[in-house]
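Mods, move this if it's the wrong board.
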Amino acid sequence: MLTIRRDQEIHREEGGWFSARWHFSFDHYRDPGNDGFGAMRVFNDDRLVPGAVWPLHPHQDVEGLTYVVEGSFRHEDSVGGAPGPLPAGAVQRMTLGSGALHSEQNASSDAPMRFIQIWVLPDTPGLSPEVEQSCQALAFEPGRVVLLENLRFDPGEEANDRAFAMRLADLADDYVDDAFGAVHRAHASVAALPEVLEEQGRTTAAGRLLQREVEALSRLLLEPARPYVAVLGGAKVSDKLGTIGALVERVDALLVGGAMAFTFIAADGGSVGDSLVEPDRFDEVRAACDRADDRGVVLQLPEDVVAAPDRTVEAPRHTVRASEVPTGEMGLDIGPRTVEEFARSIADAKTIMWNGPMGVFELEPFGAGTRGVATAIAGSSAFAVAGGGDSLAAVKKYGLEDGFDHLSTGGGASLEFLEGRELPGIAVLHVAT
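Not the wrong board. Structure tokens:
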């Protein structure tokens, strides 16, 4: 039980920051008399004004209660977290526990500030009676959101179990799937659940994000403007062999960087030192190269790489030919000559798909290749799409978001889509591609 003492304070601080606080105490925690202060809830885009209150469910314990805050604000965790400003539009997730938490909202502008309340249900495997009761209560508490624990904790989820899907269906009136990153998985919440709801005559739909993903990726799959250039990177070629095979049938040029390029180079007889290589994939990459030759597809591999004895910032490094990496060293980034050659192919493109970094870009000494390729794509006039977590992280790191027409939220999902596979979560919703 949480007790609120209504001695709320609101005042303006230096720089236009408003801070709001009130005290609360716990009735049944290890330290029952502990006082803290929490973030204020503002309803329906209202301004931050004195007297606004934070509604609490009368039977909800504070531990595990999470608030997602949208806006420009800073926070300080009294347990020891350092305060710091966040950019406008940032989202901060705060979980109240037995420690005090102080949240401050920047109200120096006239822009409305929105606080969204989310109740996180206990991490009990499966659908407990408490979960079902909380979902049923939504009908009487408009504006409230219930966030379920990760469904994969229940074996019925990954098994695409119909009985599990029927229990999920009992929690909802309608179904919207906006998780493109999961639509390639035949899991209960992705495939069986919308099937059950459709059979029961209820509405199932794709969310706006999923719709945008399908529309953008369909441009790559169906009638791309040419020349169509695909840029692939990342660590293991085995993760993208299916994609390579599909792209060779569709693109005009395929640029391969990252550690996966060394399997191609080694399969052709090059010396790659201690670089990551998958010898068991030699036959497959040779077949992909032969197929590219047959179709007239330009398959570009790195000409030079940045080599070092280990993956550290302090490691001595130098640029060598990609097929002449010294023993005891490994290629950790494409070299400047390769960046130039890749950029030349990119400049001629009308359609570009990029998935995977060109090196270990998380370490600054090995980030020039990824930065150079990303910058070339962003500066082109082509319809440009980037996908995969590492690629999106690189785009954000280098501030190139505006140079891409679409940033796909799905890594594996986007690749399987571009391979022409039927994705369960899209097929069941009858989304046109």
